Amino acid sequence: MKNVTIILLGILLCVPVFGMNKEPNVPKQEKNFVVCIDPGHQAKGDNKTEAIAPGSTQKKARVSSGTEGIGTKKAEYEINLEASLILKQLLEEEGITVVMTRENNDVNISNAERAQISNNNKANMTIRIHCDSIDNSEKTGATILVPSDTSKYTQTIYAESQKYAEYLKEALTSKGIKVNGIFKREDMTGFNWSQVPVVILEMGFMSNWNEDKMLSSPEYQKKLMEAIVDALRIYKNSSED
Ligand SMILES: [Zn+2]
Question: Tens of pLDDT along 90-121?
Fold first, then answer.
């Protein structure tokens, strides 16, 4: 009986020790990496206003309905969601936790509310998916937007956002997709309310006949989304070093 008691005591004493020793061996990849995907716009814009930043008196429409294809006449919010759902699937295949701000078009979620979804989920990165449009049908290519480094609202999230944006630019370029550049923006409600790193990918110009058609193609959407995943993989690994 005495030996059994000693063995039992031994086991009880060893369990916490093993438990503690186990911790450093947990592979870093098992850490929960959360990406929030925000498919830009929604079926019906909402012109009611909201503060452009926390505590700001400057206001902007809660959310606009976006642009539409010059040839396809397809709405931007539809393409944004199609591409975002592809991205969701690709990221989940990588074992990344995905939070979506919306999964259908018939919603009413403002840009500030979308940012708060990322904040509440403590996302490691927010990817906002959009399409561009300009009064020049020649203009093509993807464009990356990041929060400003000088705005008091986004100073703390600028560096990580910019770091990811650079990986994204590289990933897109290496897939043969033209990138117009990385631009800092102070005027975006969705950036100013964000407490986590965030970028917007403007996938291309719906005001260009050819790019408009390409943006509707599931194959081209997938190519763009794969670049986002490639860049996230590099970003995630670099953050774990
Ligand atoms: Zn847009």
Answer: 999 999 999 999 999 999 999 999 999 999 99
Chain-centre distance for alpha carbon 154: 16
The total of other beta-carbon atoms located within 10 Å of residue 30's CB is 8
- Give me the CATH topology for the region 40-95+108-240: Aminopeptidase (3.40.630)
Residue 130 Cα to ligand 1 midpoint, Å, equals 4
Q: Where are the domains of the chain?
A: 40-95+108-240
Ligand 1 mean position, distance from CA 118 (Å): 18
Instruction: Give the per-residue pLDDT at 86.
Output: 98
Report CA(69)–ligand 1 centroid distance (Å): 12
Is residue 51 within 8 A of residue 67, CB to CB? The reply is no
Ligand 1 mean position, distance from CA 187 (Å): 14
